[in-house]
Amino acid sequence: MKELVVISGKGGTGKTSLVAAFAALARKVVLCDADVDAADLHLVVRPELLERHPFAAGHEAVIDSDKCTQCGLCLDWCRFGAINEHFRVEPLLCEGCGVCAHLCPAGAVDFPEKTCGEWFVSRTPYGPMVHARLGIAEENSGKLVSLVRTEARRLAEEEGVERLLTDGPPGVGCPVIASIGNADAVLVVSEPTQSGRHDMERVLELTRHFKVPAAVCINKADLHRAQADRIAEAAVSSGARFVGHIPFDPLVTRAQVDGRSLVDYGETQVMREIERIWEAVCGFAFDGP
Amino acid sequence: MIIAIASGKGGTGKTTIACNLAAGLEKPVTLLDCDVEQPNAHLFLQPRWTGSELFHLDVPEIDAERCSLCGACQELCQFNAIAILPEIAMTFPELCHSCRGCALVCQEEAIGWSKRLVGEVRWGCRGMVSLVEGRLRVGEAMAPPLIEQVRKHQGLEGELTLIDAPPGTSCPVVASLWGADFALLVTEPTPFGLNDLELAVGAVRKLGLPMGLVINRCDIGDRRVHRFAEQQGIPILLEMPFDKKTAEAYARGSLLVEVLPQWKEAMVQLYEKILETLRSWKAAC
Question: Of A103, A173, A193, which has the smallest distance from its Cβ to B104's Cβ?
C-alpha cells in the first residue's frame, strides 16, 4: 500500500478539487482528508457516513474556586498567560501543560481530558474515506491528522486497497508535518502567482527536510504563463518532479457548487490535463497507472 | 485599534486585503504578518527591511551528574519531551512546549536550558506602512509562540494595526486574533468558502469579537455565502468581482491600490465601513 499526499504550501490553489478528480480516476482507492482544520473534501465526494468517533487529546486545567486559596503561584508558573486575576483558566489560552494542576499546593486544579473534535469513516462512490473535524479554535490538529492517516492506512490494508490518497492542509507547520511524515510521495499544487511560488519553495524545503519525494503541478497555469514557467523551473531545481499544468476553467467552481467531481462533466480540456497529471503521478507515487 | 484579517479557507484574499488596506489608507499603519508558516505580505509591499531578530524557545537540558533519574519531570511533561531510561534521561527538544514544568518539579536542580530556533521576526517599511513579519523555520511545527512574538510589535495605542492571520481555525488563528478589536473575514462564494467561513465565524464568536465580511470574486459560485451572512447578522462590507486585470496584477505581485484605481476606492470605503460596524457594535453592547 502506498500513500500520496496532496499539499500546496499556499491555501486555495485547488488541492481538494484535484483530489476529488483523482479519486474518480483512481478506481480503487482509500481517501483521507487530513485538512482537519478546514476539511472540505466531504463536500464533493458525496460521503455516506458509516462511523463517528470522538477525538480526545490532551487535557485542560480547571480551577475549583472552592479549593483555591488565591495564593497566586499558578499565575507565576503559567507561561501561556492562561490564568486571569480572578483565578479562572481561559480555555482558549490553556496549553494543557499541567504545571498548575500538578503543583497547586491546595490541589485546586482539575485536569480533565478534553475532546478536541470528531473523526469519521464514510463510504464514497470512489472508495472508503476517513475524515475529521477539529473543534473550533482547538489544539492538537497534528495529532488528529496522524490519527486519520493511521486509520486510513489501516482501512486500506484491511480492504486490500493499494492506494491511499490524502488531501493535506496548507502551510508548513504542525498539521503539514503530521501529514507528510512517512508518506510515499507528495504532490504540491501551486498557482502562477508570486505567493504560489514563494509558498511552493518553502513547502519543497519541508519535503526535502523529511525526505519525501515531491512532484509539482500548476493549477490555473494560463492565468500567468511566464510565472508558471518560473515556478516549473524552481520546482525542478528544488529537486521535485514537474508533472504538468492545469488550465483555468470556471467548470472547477461549477463542480464544487454542484457537489460533484469534475469527471462527471464529460470530456473537457481541464479533465484531460488532470488525467495526464494523474498518470504521471501514478508512475511517480504508485509504481504505474 | 487592531483589525485582524482571517478567513478559514486559504487563498480567498486575506493577504491581498491586508496589504492593500494598509497601503491604501494613506496613514501610518502597522501590518503584522502572522501567517508565519507562509508569510506573503512582503511580496506585495516590497518593504525596505530595517531589522530582524531570531526567535528561540527555551528547552530543557538535563545535567546527568545531578539527575537522580527519579522520573518526576517525565511524569509531568504532557508532550513526551522527556524520557527517563534506566541509565539516562533523554530530551526531545522539538516536542517541548516550553512550559518549564520539568524544572519546577526537579528536586535535584538538574534542569538547565538550551534554545530551539523557532523562526525569525523581521521588520521594515514602505511609505507609511510598517511591516512586521514572522517566518517559521521550515521543519519547526509550533507557530503560536512565534505569532505571539510578532504581536508584541503592534502599533501604539491610537494607531492602526492590521493582522494578516493564517488560514484555518485552530491554535495559530486564536493566537493571531486574541486581543484584536475587530475580525475582518475574507471569503469567496463557493461551497468550500462557505464551509470554512462557518468555522471561522465560530472561532470569532468564541473570541467574542465584532466582525464583518469581504466577499472576494463575488460573482463566481452561488449565493449561499450571502444568505449565511444575512442569517447570522454579519454585515457584508465589501464585494469584489472576479477581474482578470486584478488576477494578473496579483500574480505579478503588484500592490493593487497602486495600479487599479477601483481598489484604492474600495479600501478607503472598506475602512469606513469597518469603523461604522465597530461603532454600532459598541453602541449595542
Answer: A103
B64-109 CATH: 3.30.70.20
How many other β-carbons are positioned within 10 Å of the β-carbon of residue A71? 13
What residues of B are in contact with residue A144 (Cβ under 8 Å)?
none
Express the helix, strand and coil content of chain B in percent, nearest 5 each: 40, 25, 35
ipTM of this complex: 0.96
| pLDDT above 90: residue A289 | no
Mutation target for B interface from A193, A205, A254, A261: give the one with most B CBs within 10 A: A193
- CB nearest B38 (choices: A10, A136, A175): A10
Please write the tens of the pLDDT for every residue from A134-181: 999 888 899 999 999 999 999 999 999 999 999 999 999 999 999 999
CATH fold of A61-111: Alpha-Beta Plaits (3.30.70)
pLDDT digit string, tens, across residues B209-237? 999 999 999 999 999 999 999 999 999 99
So where are chain A's domains? 2-56+118-285, 61-111
Which residue from A minimizes the CA distance to B173? A137
Residues B107-127 as b or e (16 or more Cβ within 10 Å = b): eeebbeeeebebbbbbbbbbe
CATH number listed for the domain at residues A2-56+118-285:
3.40.50.300
Q: Could you tell me which residues come within 8 angstroms of residue B49 by beta carbon, excluding any fewer than 6 positions away?
A: B122, B123, B124
Q: What is the pLDDT of residues B35-73, one digit of tens each?
A: 999 999 999 999 999 999 999 999 999 999 999 999 999
For the domain B2-55+119-284, what is the CATH code? 3.40.50.300
The pLDDT value recorded for residue A140 is 83
Helix (H, G, I), strand (E, B) or coil at A97: coil
Domain boundaries of chain B, sorted by first residue = 2-55+119-284, 64-109
